[in-house]
Amino acid sequence: MITEPPDAAARAEAAPDAPPTSKGLRGGSVGLLAAVALGLSSVAPAYSIAVTLGFVTLVAGHLAPAALLLGFVPILLTAFAFRELNREMPDCGTTFVWTTRAFGPLAGWLAGGWVVQIATLLAMTALARVGAGYLLAFAGLETLAGDTAAVTGTAVLLLVAVTAVARRGLQLAASVQYVLLGLQLLALLGFGVAAFAREGAATPSLAWLDPLGFDGFGPFSEAVLLCLYIYWGWDALITVNEETRDSGRIPGQAAVISTLVLLATYLFTAFATIGFAGTGDSGLGLGNPGNAADVLATLAPSVLGTALAKVVQLAVCVSAVAALLTCVVGSSRATLSMGVHGALPAAFARIHPRHRTPSFAAVFFGAAAAVLLVLLSLVSGDFLGDAILSVGLLIACYYGVTALACVWYFRRRLLGSPQDLLLRGVLPLLGGLMMLAAFGRSAHDMLSPAYGSTSFHGVGGVFLLGVGSIAAGAVAMLIVRARFRRFFREGRTAVVRLTVSED
């Protein structure tokens, strides 16, 4: 049940930056290395580079590394906003709490809560399906890997497995992530080194990083927008801040470290891939549309040989599964915070008495992802693909709002020092504006019925899914507002205390 002392609002006003009330999680169970591993795993680097690099190269050609570098800029600027907000308010609700404190409960619930969780659920459907397909192919069951029912059934089993691991606790999840992440990075490193060493491979050129080499703003913006998705997910590590040692410092450090490691990994792989295959539009060239959907699967046999190519195939599989696990971990903790602060039913704040995890929330998200995956698969494979494309719109939305929330929250302290002005003002502001510009450009492009695979009355299906999910969130917020009046009335300033129940 939710209880609030009579002077809660007064205490919150007097000490707005007090640490959150304990939610029953196992504090101090995650160190810097584990936090970085969770952040990297949530991005699924092997999967992300495999399914994105080809499309970036189709747009940017040999300037794909430049697009990766430019797409990283707003991500890094946003990471600074996450770091500063976490130092001030180390709450596992992250964007929900921060946006609520900056802009109020309406913006907090919609942009910091709903949009984040819908983006995660849509991503989970893709990750589960990709992981299942690669797992069946790796096992030599190519026929089943091409069967929708078999892939969907295997994907549901993967969701059950990662939900069980997430429910057991962060220490087990982190241990699993070390193995899965290590295999991914080792496979990418081996692939890159072998590609560089192949006879005839081109020597990398600094011209491939030239940000002024793009042929107009259209190709430039499209390539950078594609790259936003490739970096998305690192912020999941912030949701374990209440279980991390030195919760005000380590999660922020891990966020910046993980994004830098991602940049180095992606640039290395891109240079190696372009150097080996080139950007031609035939054969193994990355300009060949037939290679775009999965460049690693296409090139690995020629680079590594058939036997070792299987290792790359396994790496992409475990990459998707590792990200799936982190999605369940992050989402369950975000909704735990929403339950604690009275923005969701108290069931989301239930803590397992032995594992000290938000068990109800973990099972809820695993089940919700499984149901959504089955429904989208039944509707159409194309519809599922468009749903995944719409995630980019949601990413740009909540990253942009969170970055601007940092500027607004610290607005009265920005002139305290040059460091505060830079790290809490200038850099997050630039990041937020870039993200919202990406949102606007994405929405404009997605309006076209030619964008994606579906359309409805001349409007692109990707646009309808992306903007439609935000509109559905606004409607849902109006419904829950009537039930959770206290949060929507006092959410910005009041410290809402919850007696956390145990299963």
UniProtKB/TrEMBL annotation:
Gene3D superfamilies: Amino acid/polyamine transporter I (1.20.1740.10). It is found in: Cell membrane. Residues 1-23 are annotated as: Disordered. Residues 1-16 have a biased composition (Low complexity). Keywords: Cell membrane, Membrane, Transmembrane, Transmembrane helix. Pfam families: AA_permease_2. The chain crosses the membrane at residues 32-56, 62-82, 103-128, 148-166, 178-197, 217-234, 255-277, 311-329, 360-381, 387-409, 421-439, 459-480. It is a multi-pass membrane protein. It comes from the Bacteria. The keyword Ion transport does not apply. The keyword Cell membrane applies. Its main location: membrane. This is APC family permease.
